[in-house]
Amino acid sequence: MDDKKIIEDKQISEFVIGEVSQGFFLIRSVESRTASNNNKYLDFTLADKTGEINAKLWHCTEKDEAKYIANKLVKVRGNVTQWQGRLQYIIEKVRLTTEDDNLKVENFVPSAPYPAEEMYSEVLKYVGLIKNSEINMLVNILLEENKDRLIYYPAAQKNHHSYRSGLLYHITSMLKVGEGLSKVYEFINLDLLYAGIILHDIAKLFEMDSSELGIVSDYTMEGNLLGHIVQGIKMIERVASEIEMNEETAILLQHMILSHHNEPEFGSPKRPMIPEAELLHHIDTIDARMFDMKKNLDNINEGDFSDRVWLLHNRKIYKPKV
Amino acid sequence: MDDKKIIEDKQISEFVIGEVSQGFFLIRSVESRTASNNNKYLDFTLADKTGEINAKLWHCTEKDEAKYIANKLVKVRGNVTQWQGRLQYIIEKVRLTTEDDNLKVENFVPSAPYPAEEMYSEVLKYVGLIKNSEINMLVNILLEENKDRLIYYPAAQKNHHSYRSGLLYHITSMLKVGEGLSKVYEFINLDLLYAGIILHDIAKLFEMDSSELGIVSDYTMEGNLLGHIVQGIKMIERVASEIEMNEETAILLQHMILSHHNEPEFGSPKRPMIPEAELLHHIDTIDARMFDMKKNLDNINEGDFSDRVWLLHNRKIYKPKV
Amino acid sequence: MDDKKIIEDKQISEFVIGEVSQGFFLIRSVESRTASNNNKYLDFTLADKTGEINAKLWHCTEKDEAKYIANKLVKVRGNVTQWQGRLQYIIEKVRLTTEDDNLKVENFVPSAPYPAEEMYSEVLKYVGLIKNSEINMLVNILLEENKDRLIYYPAAQKNHHSYRSGLLYHITSMLKVGEGLSKVYEFINLDLLYAGIILHDIAKLFEMDSSELGIVSDYTMEGNLLGHIVQGIKMIERVASEIEMNEETAILLQHMILSHHNEPEFGSPKRPMIPEAELLHHIDTIDARMFDMKKNLDNINEGDFSDRVWLLHNRKIYKPKV
Amino acid sequence: MDDKKIIEDKQISEFVIGEVSQGFFLIRSVESRTASNNNKYLDFTLADKTGEINAKLWHCTEKDEAKYIANKLVKVRGNVTQWQGRLQYIIEKVRLTTEDDNLKVENFVPSAPYPAEEMYSEVLKYVGLIKNSEINMLVNILLEENKDRLIYYPAAQKNHHSYRSGLLYHITSMLKVGEGLSKVYEFINLDLLYAGIILHDIAKLFEMDSSELGIVSDYTMEGNLLGHIVQGIKMIERVASEIEMNEETAILLQHMILSHHNEPEFGSPKRPMIPEAELLHHIDTIDARMFDMKKNLDNINEGDFSDRVWLLHNRKIYKPKV
Amino acid sequence: MDDKKIIEDKQISEFVIGEVSQGFFLIRSVESRTASNNNKYLDFTLADKTGEINAKLWHCTEKDEAKYIANKLVKVRGNVTQWQGRLQYIIEKVRLTTEDDNLKVENFVPSAPYPAEEMYSEVLKYVGLIKNSEINMLVNILLEENKDRLIYYPAAQKNHHSYRSGLLYHITSMLKVGEGLSKVYEFINLDLLYAGIILHDIAKLFEMDSSELGIVSDYTMEGNLLGHIVQGIKMIERVASEIEMNEETAILLQHMILSHHNEPEFGSPKRPMIPEAELLHHIDTIDARMFDMKKNLDNINEGDFSDRVWLLHNRKIYKPKV
Amino acid sequence: MDDKKIIEDKQISEFVIGEVSQGFFLIRSVESRTASNNNKYLDFTLADKTGEINAKLWHCTEKDEAKYIANKLVKVRGNVTQWQGRLQYIIEKVRLTTEDDNLKVENFVPSAPYPAEEMYSEVLKYVGLIKNSEINMLVNILLEENKDRLIYYPAAQKNHHSYRSGLLYHITSMLKVGEGLSKVYEFINLDLLYAGIILHDIAKLFEMDSSELGIVSDYTMEGNLLGHIVQGIKMIERVASEIEMNEETAILLQHMILSHHNEPEFGSPKRPMIPEAELLHHIDTIDARMFDMKKNLDNINEGDFSDRVWLLHNRKIYKPKV
């Protein structure tokens, strides 16, 4: 095989047995194993948007082991073979991708349906509608400080919106719903509602460890011991103190965070005591439920029921024929 | 005293001790009692928008007893006196009001903030947006059949929207919220959602006995034994059978009624299994909560807490100063 | 092998390796597979009262696939061989059974201990005791309309009485218990009680899809979305409307259906409000519990405990030596 | 007034103002008070089957105070007067009743509908059906030891069967129900079932302090700290040890007592593990519910609902017109 | 009456009708009323250790109304009279007490059994045992900052330790218990445990408004909206940030505060995840329960039961004779 | 191989392939199997403190099967071989151990950290502090009667302290905690508390079947049907009757046993009604929780979380770095 031969990038779905193929892939998982000849090798599951393939890097070094880890993007060239009826990809060359490769991670992992930057701008548009200058400032500071993570963080490890930029997508949907509700319930203070929506889960950025692919490996120590509700209150406390925010305003925002799960058994020791907090809870729930329902309906045909969905109280969901 | 003297109608707040006063009043409550001289008399609490007054009709007949009952509107003339430090109204003349008196009952009892006919038209506007001809027909039939009651029925005996035309007000608010949500969750079937909102509590018209003042005296026998959820399903079943509605469609509408309380312990043996039913539940809850919160906030000052509100899980509600 | 050779029918327990055997069997399950030579074949589990055997129909056609499906009875001739230490039945000839074969399905699947027709007659005997002519008529109509299914339906997919004619068996036991109780509690209205017992689960015939073997494959769409309680109420509503039944009577019957699970969390939004409904609930529970206990005790020795039984709140059951 | 005058006994409903009346009455309640002249007097509520009356014993001694206490039967002679529109009975003579008066306490307090001795005989009839000689002996011993109390004890302080001989009435009804059920569920061990029914509440005789009128004043120290379930187990333990009962049999009887409330939160740490214990629980519940329902229905008209009944999960009960 | 006459101070129990008496009293409650002559007067309930008395200040001024309010200590001289059989105190002279009066408030209101300063010193003794310098510093800062309030604050408005210096008493008892437990469970980190005990309820000082008498009038706005658990976490956050405490240490302390109610439904969204937090919860509960039990036992005799105690799950408590 | 050759005892960790080894081992599990030559053999898992090994006894007799059962200690000699990469021990000689072997079972199974006899003496020391002679006598009798089992019984089959002498270890820790608490809550009756601690789980000796290794095979019939709480009450009842104990004292001890799980759903139909019973519950809980937490922390590093622990409400436990 001639390394220098110019070959085009292919996607996994285009692989043909017996050919040399090359392309960009995500390392979904990887294990270091020892072959019968006592040599170490890496056993990968590689993925792109079109599918997954098992791949082997024979004769790997310790450096390889350290470098090629789960959730990294790699450029690979290798032979496509068959083993026990399934395709296998024998790696000839492999390297980590660089900025120059100009890849969009959204093409390799499940992601929100809108570009993160676009959603971030939409959030800023709503921040612009917050008239109370202190609230406006506090929200802006927290967004700026955390923009890096916000761009790619999911909203959960396993639950609703648990994919790349899921948190941002959750926030933008909720802001739109809040806008709609405020037209029916005109006595609502929109400054509080918008700030509450934007900040209600902001501390998830520090409750969970997420890779830039939007995949959560684990909860942080602080996430386990305190949880995003208390962490979020601490974040507001810190910035409120920096900008010398009116105490009542800071407490109201903290109360919205504290009460947004609505019930003690779901993590909110206080139930909502102002209508904006009450709405925040319902908007949050609606957006989660619609996400979960849509996701399950997308995978079934009209007239069919989904499997039981744990996140929806173990319900089956039905896709009407009407 | 000269009965023929022309005197102007007065409201209770304008009454002066020692004068003859006349006006239109609502009989809030009435009791037949026996005086020390063994004569029967009627002891009323009369009310108008401005207040309440105790009134006596001495020497009443059995006919009077049967005629002047709670929740009726009456025209009264009498002397305003004082007894044990409180005003007392000694009735000289009294009659039931007639259509010619041209009274608006809304002026005597708590009522929805919009005229019932206006809200009814608004509901019809949304019905016009239901494209599925069967659903459209069924909703129209049920509205027409029940318009008379719908105009004045409250949504509850004691809970949220428990005043004249409260059910209609509840429906119109919910329709607007539904419209807003459908713009964010575009996969929602609006025909089902609008029909579900309009019909979800329709059987309350037969679960409770309400006077035309919007005051519920009691639950009906069927209301007690079956409840408005099952009664509503029966209503849909009957009309669906009349118009030979597609069976799946009828079942979906019935499922929305059945599941709109969301949890078995609140009367829904099935949880929502389609997204429209899920949304219906949340819209219903939000509208109830916002009603209860607003009602409690309207009575307190900024910076104060309400008393504990039973309907809101015994919470106090706070009125922010922000 | 000579196909024409006359051989006697055998039961699975009588099979001998190396012989040609023939008999009638139930297809418990069947899968279409592809052999290494790329030919399709059917892989069966066949059963009769005496046991189960794996069977192969090599070289099957698409027609075969469509015809030989689970829960059908078949006549089979084939060679009994051994593979990996277990018997295997290589099918030579197979056909669906016909009425002429004169088979009793009870001999192939778990069934109630009494013949279905006999139990049906017993139910009619109790109907004969219902003096209220409207109730009598309504019960008769619903029985006649549904006799076909009632004959073989189980009372559940997995729970108590989940075998052929289980529902009928459940009803007849309950009727006898009701008769006994009515002698102690003489104020009970037996018309309501007997009707309630007969109809309480009648809509299970439409909540679940059962084969004529009494094996439930799944819940129906309406069963999932409404459930047999609401479906049963609709059935009564339809017939009550046809026979112009007294409204109160219809509501009482519907209330008995509605409340027979006794608690909201078990599907009854209303608890029993008449003594007949209260008794119906207890009789239903007792019959289910005695069924489950007896079933578990039948399989253990005196002095032993059963395994934990999920349907009995995860209890172990003890078989006394006394 | 001549004390020696012979006057006939009267019932309260026959009292006439201004006359001297005499009769037998129950002291429902009594209070020692001090009159304005600083003399002590006793203020009674006296009762018979026909009603209640306020009575005064002026100038009472300390001996009187000690003697005339609540729940005693007294013979009284006195003047019937009127005070503030109500009858008042000014006591001239009073004494405690004696055996010679030959009174039946059932005529003064709410009691079971059958004579206690008759019900006790009925229980013995069922004991006669217990074939296991050890069980038979143990039940007989416990009945004999406790016959005195059993004759008059109620089954509860406030709940179902809380009147004179209520416990005995509860037991006899349950025995009849058990007999009926055993005909449907033929595998039931009737020895265990009958013994379980007779003994399940036997320790209520020591959990509560009841007067011979069947009125419970309070719980005993042991009743509060251990409760009738544990007390009953101790009673069986003692007798089983005396008669050297087979250990398994004793444990089975104790298990039936222990589990007859069915759920931990109702006092049974173990759920029934034998079918006889399971039936015992249901028979107990049915008999309590039928008692409570009947009691409430007896006081209302057809077509009416009772008030909410706390003992029946706060339900209203309906009396059908059918 | 001669104002100059020198009279000794008396306690309420020593008052004699017809005498002029003077002394120091606590204003338990006071109401401004209007007499029949249209003059305003103040109607007091005054108290000292020995009892309570009704008192009147006729002809009060607006200044008096503002000055003599509930929970203040006053010096009073007046006539002791009788009205409707009860003592009444007609105030001649009244003034607020001053420091020069040298009164101990403990003598007028229920208080902890030890002097506050002594208990505060005991707490400091335990702080001295905290070896981790950061924890030691943080605890010291928070104690010093809040010593003023800590001295008199109760631990609750109505629950256990709801009297003057009750919080301090609760803390010192818990510290002693913690010390004992640490000798059995030697792996416990005493620095964390002592700090957790001292700080667990520290924010009650800001959750409730207490007078210096240890009487709580109400919850604060922040107390209502956030609660002492979240407020306490904020207090630790602020000081930890000031002293640049190790982040893990601060989180551990905050976790102890957060989890000390052990269950979400009691206000702890996280259960204890370190053994010190687990112990803190149990020590807190034990001290509360022992307080409530002792309090109820102190008021009854051996062999008696207390009334049902709401704070103890509605139990009665028994005082053994052993 | 020469059987007479003297070889030293070895532990499993010292085994070398190809050598003859001998030693003492615990039979963890054993199965009788049939080899391909139709001979029966025994397949063991043998264990000592240093590890486990698979072992085969070829050609076993029925006597061997009966003799070499799980949880026995054996002396074994055999060849150490390798099969499929794992060590295998081919048994040449095997015998049950005898007293002469002078083995300590603690060296073969998980056990309490202190010698059983030492802990038993410690318990007696506390008994010595019980001043009430009846309580002292009752506790002594029960200890003496049950010393044999108490020495080795675990406190549970799977939960906390489920190893050899675990119950004794649990009791001694609790006694120490009780001693500490009694110094803070001086009104506590130590006689009751110490007796309650010693007896609270005493009937576990008869609720579960434990081998002398402290391994529970199953619950007893009585354990299943009554449970150790009721069994313990019966034990106290028997001895109290023998020594004619004061009735109140016996009831108090029984109440402590009855209530020590604190909540009906955990097996205590009565909650603690005396402070000693309340303390007993908390001490029991604390000792269980500290055991479980310590056990989980012992297996992880500082800064790490344990897995979720079922016994601790499914919590993760954190090991601080502080």
Automatic annotation (TrEMBL), chains A, B, C, D, E, F:
Domain OB: from-to ranges: 31-96
Record's keyword terms, sorted: Hydrolase
CDD domains, per the entry: HDc, YhaM_OBF_like
Keyword match Hydrolase: yes
InterPro entries: HD/PDEase_dom, HD_domain, NA-bd_OB-fold, NA-bd_OB_tRNA, YhaM_exoribonuc/phosphodiest
Domain (HD) ranges: 168-288
One protein family per Pfam: tRNA_anti-codon
One term of GO molecular function: nucleic acid binding
Domain of life: Bacteria
A GO BP entry: rRNA 3'-end processing
Protein name in the entry: 3'-5' exoribonuclease
Phylogenetic lineage: Bacteria, Bacillati, Bacillota, Clostridia, Eubacteriales
